[in-house]
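This part of the workshop introduces the protein records we will be handling. To make this concrete, we reproduce a full record directly below.
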Amino acid sequence: MELELQHKTVFITGSTSGIGFAMAEGFLKEGAHVFINGRTQNSVDNAIDKLKASVSNANVSGIAANFKDSNAIEIIQEAIPQIDILINNVGIFASKLFEETTDTDWHEMFQVNVMSSVQLSRFFLPKMIAQNWGRILFVSSECAQLVPADLIAYSTTKTALLSLSRGLAQTTKGTKVTVNSLLPGSTLTEGAVEFLKDQASKDGKTEAQVAENFFKTDRNSSLLQRFAQPKEIADMALFLSSPLSAATNGAAIKVDGGSVPGIL
């Protein structure tokens, strides 16, 4: 399918690995100009090298900015005055029970997961409306609805993104700008691979056995019954970012393998 993304300018936060990296690769293959982002210049440079090796004639640039730092937004605003597509993908989490999660944990997760999206959207959305075309996508999570006991703070931030996304979508009425959110399920990112390796070593099992057990216990509601590949999440993001998705606005799209029960 031709997604009509040639020459579109895309900025993806948290895109040196995982789902963000898969999105960057997908946009580059469609002929877009992609700005990736990571916390350090080294991580950005390494990701750019990988993308150029993967996609011939890749039009990719990078910006090192750590969203825990209050200066991160200013760095990005100076480097990229205008874009067509904003993917708010960056996210951090702390796997702790509620009583163990400190105020610092809460503040850092809100700053990175929510406020970075608020600040970037506040900067880029008016420009998109002025040019009468644009896409903003918030990468939420199945945890926004499942809310695991050790991820209450993280889940709260991901739920906040759903309200932010829907609210901003309502400001685009009558324009060719859309704002949507994406809810990925358990995905085989680099972090998930490390989790499987570590757990397999501790339990004396294979990684495949650990993964199978994860979906029998932690995610037994999953219909997919396996980790999604980052590209499977990225493919949906590319469609929602394309001109072909013009009729989808203010939506929260699940790409969770059916892990969240219900029909809505």
